[in-house]
């Protein structure tokens, strides 16, 4: 009878152990003092600790040997209630696990067993980190796409230099740092400034633009700082707010800052440092909050050396310098700008003008001393005055044609129509003869013509024996 009971116990115990081992989660059982009694395969897989190394060992021993940072079993025994903690295990590698220990009490209320289950948090934490990285990358990609979209909508930027400049301008739009735009007249400094303002958090605020060179000095002070009633003869009744006050909450753009007198430079510096402005004829000051962007078409450092510009103001204005290169140094922007203004003025004047390929080549070869402003004016003039719908190089001013010619080593003028093969043969003959005249050997001539030495010898012999017709080509060296 006792044997039957023992067999039943063994069968039940085997079934329970099978259930224990089938669990994917780690499960282990200790006695009331924290001694390991049983450990399933999940514990071995998750922790890297072997069952034989744990059975008969106290959980507190693992703490002492720094295999685990703390014992949840001990905590559950002391509290006599279920405890869940995050536990760090150091075996073959450091792992983070979540462990829940449940005490089993006997009839006297004492802890007889503790059943603990644990789940690997390392993969979960890694997955969470990867999700965070993915979200961050997604945000960065979205910001990049948004930036590129905004740039394409606001600025013609095809050259790599202009694209990089616009990306920097976009980043500067997100902060309130003072920006100094440097570059020749007509490069589009105001366009860049408007882009920065429209991409900034101040986009809904005012955009105040002042050309410091376009206002007489005796009027510029009142225009900038405002004035009180009776401040000077002709002052408006009730006074007037200056442009600095009107820029409150928005952006103030001072173009050609190099034109400011030393007196006004000092007053502007005080406004920048104190964020307060005093009207002409007043002892009171008003708090102002504006983003300042300035531009210059002269070298301010040279002006400082010549005592024409304050160095302390220069340092306050040039926190973020942006140099806008002239149009001749960003050739890839020329054709897109031409097509942009062609479309703009066609719509404005209800025209359907087109531009020939040769005309576009002339535009590319031209130096554009007036930069984008000159290009815009030229396109408008051609749209208005050109009689035909197709704008050709004949419609261009002489300086464009001469620039296009200078862009080439020679210009061939065809005086009459001849068979194409005859024309090509004549060009080849003249070129071979010229190479043989100017070069010291056939090897040198071959290198200059970028053909083989054998071809040079053969073609030169053919040229000597060939019947020469009266030249119909004139080579104009420039």
Describe this protein with a few key phrases.
478 residues, alpha/beta, aromatic hydrocarbons catabolism, Beta-Lactamase, ATP binding, single chain, 20 helices, Rossmann fold, disordered C terminus, 18 strands, DNA-binding, 5 domains
Q: What order do the helices and strands come in, and which of them pair?
A:
Blueprint: H1 2-22, E1 26-31, E2 36-39, H2 41-47, H3 51-54, H4 59-64, H5 72-79, E3 83-90, E4 94-105, E5 111-120, H6 122-154, H7 160-173, E6 179-182, H8 189-198, E7 207-211, H9 217-225, E8 226-227, E9 240-241, H10 243-246, E10 251-255, H11 262-274, E11 276-277, E12 286-287, E13 291-296, H12 300-305, H13 311-317, E14 320-323, H14 334-348, E15 354-355, H15 357-365, H16 371-385, E16 390-391, H17 398-406, E17 410-414, H18 420-438, H19 442-449, H20 453-465, E18 473-477
Helix pairs in contact: 7-8, 14-16, 15-17, 18-19, 18-20, 19-20
